[in-house]
Amino acid sequence: MKVLVINAGSSSMKFTLFSMANNTVLAKGQFERLGTDKPNMIYKRLSDGLKFEGIVPVRNLEEALKRVCAKLVDPADGVMKDLGEIVAIGHRVLLGGEKITKPVKVDEGVKEIIREYIPLGPLHNPANLAGIEACEAAMPGIPNVAVFDTQFHMTMPPEAYLYAIPTEYYEKYGIRKYGFHGTSHRYVTLATAEFLGKKPEDVTLITCHLGNGCSMAAVKNGKVIDTTMGLTPLEGLMMGTRSGDLDPAVVIHLIELGHSTKEVDTILNKKSGLYGVGGINSGDMRDMINAAEGGNEQAELALKMFARRVVKYVGAYYVLLGGADALVFTGGVGEYSVPMRKRITSQLGALGLKLDDERNKECFGKPGVISTDDSKWKMIVMPTDEELMIATDTVNTLGLKK
């Protein structure tokens, strides 16, 4: 049984083809810089390490998907004889509001709801929808399933998801905290429970998805009671290019200074965070650490700000949860940035946590405990696998048997 997972963005498309019999990846890759004159395709076959990378002239996402399909069935480079071997396609979708709170087979009604929430997800929802429609055109008859980023966070109580503004704005317009990265937080919750030898309903965790986008979740007995991202993925932690939390009056002031709402959106989403503070024309954590180690004071300030905000939320969530079994790091930064994990964890001594430096170095992109044996609770690195979670949800939603 083969399931294709698609994660379509505004200028990119990631794809992963799974054999669900043993949850193995057959092929994966992505298109980058879609919409430019140099769209780049990366294709990897996992069985023997075959890799293709190069500029492939496509004009849009639909053409990119056709190239992917051709590669998957190519006699020399492919992994199957016919596209008909794919039984279903799973899609990462940003937001379905309160109208869709679980994975769902795509039909016209589902697509209409995705369109309805474009104003709250102007970068993601249109691209996610385009990915679905491209698959419908390229592989007619194969069912598509939408898996929403917000799903795992729908267990938050009203005191967590409501904003302290007039309730009419929630009732009329759905303005509330939705939370994102839910597929990742759910995967690492399940994986960490298994790692600890417990059932998901028996674990209480603080999960930290740290990458270019960053979010945290407070998970009590396997269910989210709070998360850092809000109405959009802009709220919460400092990120690669996003500001995270700030005084709402900053937005008002920027507009009064003459910036349009579109310009303010660009400033806060694409020109802030590490990129905006670090002064090195990059929002990449690796670049920022290298610059700081080279004596760049602005880069050092950006790293201090990033770590401080994570630490602040760890403290808040620990109290909300009434204690926790583990603090879990995932995402590109969480899994691979040994220096940033040290910056964060070195400030958590008041909660009874101690970092084991050697364990921290050893856990480079692989699961493991990085706290000392005498820590009050554990700190764990747990690589995420959102694609496998989406593929699994797709199979379960359609009632398919492996």
From TrEMBL:
The UniProt entry's GO CC annotations, sorted and at most eight, read:
cytoplasm
Instruction: Name the residues that bind substrate.
Output: 92
Identify the cofactor(s). Answer: Mg(2+); Mn(2+)
EC numbers for this chain: 2.7.2.1
One Pfam family it belongs to: Acetate_kinase
Q: Which HAMAP family match?
A: Acetate_kinase
User: Any idea what this protein is called?
Assistant: Acetate kinase
Instruction: Write down the species.
Output: Victivallis lenta
